[in-house]
Amino acid sequence: MARENGGASAMEVDDSKSDPSMQKFSINVLQLLKSAQMQHGLRHGDYTRYRRYCTARLRRLYRSLKFTHGRGRYARKAVTESCVTEVRFLHLVLYTAERAWSHAMEKRQLSDGPNSRQRIHLIGRLRKAVKWATLFSQLCSVKGDSRTSLEAEAYASYMKANLLFEQDRNWDTALMNFKSARAVYEELGKYGDLENQVLCRERVEELEPSIRYCLHKIGESNLQTSEFLHIGEMEGPALDLFKAKLEAVMAEARTQQAASLTEFHWLGHKFPISNAKTRVAILKAQDLEKDLHGPAAESLSSEKRLTVFDKIFAAYNEARSCIRNDLVSAGNAENVKDDLNGLDKAVSALLGQRTIERNQLLVSIAKSKLTKRREEKNEKVTKPEELVRLYDLLLQNTSDLCDLLTSGRDQKPEEAALAEECVLKTLVFQAERCFYLALSYGLAGKRVEAYVLYCRARSLAEEALQRYDSSGSSDEVLQRELKTLHDESRSNSCIEHAKGIMEEVKGPENLSKKISTISLSGTDGKVLFLLLYTKEKTQLES
């Protein structure tokens, strides 16, 4: 019930009129919906959870209003102006529209995209959302105050624009509805409290990409397709339909670009690409890699980088699947098979390199939380054992990549250089693994094991530095990290050695203190008696 009353601050009723039919209700629509969406799934894009919340909310509203549709035989009751005697009737209509909209967005989020039948269902749910949003606007124009009526009108315009946007038609009408909603929120953003002004400005920013896309479709904008990528970096539920359109536009652009991609260049090799699906998948992966290694890469957060890595893996795996299907259908054509095997090796190697980069990103995230204090109650702090596990994964990744590079014939110098780099990374990861394993043993009080592992980490770091100097690499960051690891391993080994000596010296003293506190009358006395008796018996027998 506490959650149901969470929107009370966003809703007021004007009781100045004694006649119930003349009451004017006030609902801060945007604030109410934004709060519900963020608390029930849309913070993480979970439309299924939000749809279930809307369903449960509607059930509670129907029961509390005693506005059920009969027992046994279903007889639907329509919400009309005459039956709106309190604000919860308006909530009924609003959450019904939200439920239909979230159901449509749930279909849009399917991993492979909606098929023809699912798309028909999706558009049907959007039509239902438009129907209920229009009814909500009509009721608010009569039963709501001026602000509520304006917000309801903007909400209905937004839903109509979404339907046309998804149908890929009537771009002029969609543009008109988007602009109508934007104009209302721009005006409302000038008044009210600070929270409401911020929400209205956010909604205006979320609507802007859809407006620019509509202008692009009707030919009134000079915006290039590549520029839509920067617009798509914005976040918000209002942008999810736009992002789906953006992905379709980029897929079409990649298909056109793929016609010119006849060869794939990798470490001195050239492999012909005949399959159009393979070309599109490789182009998609290359476009995503630009986000990670381009000039704007530093501005990306760790979560967004991990999301980009997942998309890259999906694209390269799709390319590998197409290549292997071509291998099956290649028959006895040896030349074609050799080219496809080489292309498969190249794509697998790129996939291995990106996997190593992703796991290194996970290591950097874990290291940042290693020494972090728990400022919040549920904040997770990294343990050294977790870093050991991540370095185990990295060692496996480098081993697999090195085996892949050294396999086969006609090895190019670029492949040999990359294999040598893998060997150097293996040494670095082994040294790092030993360091954090030693840290884990040190925290457990096992001084001897920690000392030996720190010494091993230092020797591995020395070996890696020697190999780095002989390779002529220019990676100064790696060199600095190795020197830091070497120095920390040396200092920590000295600390563990000193702690071990101190514990050994203080061992008898601590033992005597414990014995002096033993009581002869209790359980401790019985244990001491048994120990003394056993010792005396052993001496007599000897």
Automatic annotation (TrEMBL):
Listed GO biological process terms: SRP-dependent cotranslational protein targeting to membrane
Coiled-coil annotated residue ranges, if any: none
CDD domains according to UniProt: SRP68-RBD
Any one Gene Ontology molecular-function term assigned to this protein's record: endoplasmic reticulum signal peptide binding
Stated family: Belongs to the SRP68 family.
Superkingdom, taxonomy of origin: Eukaryota
Compartments in which it is found: Cytoplasm; Endoplasmic reticulum; Nucleus, Nucleolus
Region (Disordered): 1-20
Main location: cytoplasm
GO cellular component terms, A-Z: cytosol; endoplasmic reticulum; nucleolus; signal recognition particle, endoplasmic reticulum targeting
Protein name according to UniProt: Signal recognition particle subunit SRP68
Keyword Lipid biosynthesis assigned: no
Keywords noted in UniProt: Cytoplasm, Endoplasmic reticulum, Nucleus, Ribonucleoprotein, RNA-binding, Signal recognition particle
One Pfam family, short name: SRP68
Keyword RNA-binding annotated: yes
